[in-house]
Amino acid sequence: MADAAVAVSGHGKQTVTAQQLEDMKKELIELTTKHNMRLPVRSFMDDQTYKWRFGGPPDYTLANVFYLRGRTMNHHEGSLEQVVEDVVKTWEFERSHKLDVTEHKSTDGANFKIGANGAKMFSNVEAHEVGNYNVLLEPASESLWSKEMRTDWDGSHHAFKEAFTAFPWEVLKVFAGPPKVAFSWRHWAHFTGTYKGNEGKGQLLELTGFGTAVVSPELKLRDVEVFYNPDEFLLTLEGKRPTACQQKGHDSLGPMMPVVERKAMLAKSPQ
Question: Is residue 153 part of a domain?
Fold first, then answer.
């Protein structure tokens, strides 16, 4: 859950040249100004010296470009949706890039636990050791997500890096505010790589679900539960389900059309 970024930017294994990075930074400026979009705020990245998993702080330029290109919601500044989205993106960033779990500031230390679909609830330390993907794929069928993979931080991340260039995440709607936040969410990616030998053709995969999070007065995460269908998602990646299976429930969750595309469509409509 939440956009993943690797050492240079984004999620996938592809190498980004210095020129491509500069072009993407220019695109970010255009997207934020032309479409009145706000870049996510991932806190606690440069407020002190941290122990980094990949040698230094991540560059989220690529992840941000794919996020702004494909997001379907454009929440206003100060909205609960925007606040929740920033908290989750900060949590993802810390979990993926800070080696020392005691340096994570988005979670409430020993009070933090997380699980999916009523399966095992992981402590802060346990979740950090196995990684976000393994925590959230704990309820998946063992035939789709192996027992060996469930304790393999690097292997679980590598599996999705091979499949996607970027895997953005957005909040769709917040139904209840602190101290127990309830919200719907969307993950999406273009399947341009491979997964378990199945080669993608660039098709859009969309994963939607619901979540609750108890937060401290300082908005630190304490008790997080996520609900979605992991088996259907993994079967789609393996090529055993059509991508349409990932689009169930869209009408109740959100418009499911990127803001950029909606604006372009409206601009072409007769006045």
Answer: yes
What are the contacts of 255-259 at 24+ separation with CB within 8 A?
Answer: 255/72, 255/73, 256/72, 256/186, 256/206, 257/72, 258/69, 258/70, 258/71, 258/72, 259/35, 259/37, 259/71, 259/72, 259/73, 259/74
Is 82 within 8 Å of 93 (Cβ atoms)? no
In tens, the pLDDT along 53-93 reads: 999 999 999 999 999 999 999 999 999 999 999 999 999 99
Radius of gyration over every alpha carbon of the chain, rounded to an integer in angstroms: 18
Q: 3-class SS at 166?
A: coil
The strand ranges marked E within the chain are 113-116, 122-123, 169-176, 180-191, 194-195, 198-199, 203-215, 221-227
State which residues form the domain around 134. Answer: 18-268
Confirm whether 11 is domain-assigned.
no
pLDDT tens digits along 109-164: 999 999 999 999 999 999 999 999 999 999 999 999 999 999 999 999 999 999 99
Domain membership of residue 10 (yes or no) is no
Does some domain include residue 196? yes
Cα–Cα distance measured from residue 26 to residue 138, given in angstroms and rounded to the nearest whole number = 39
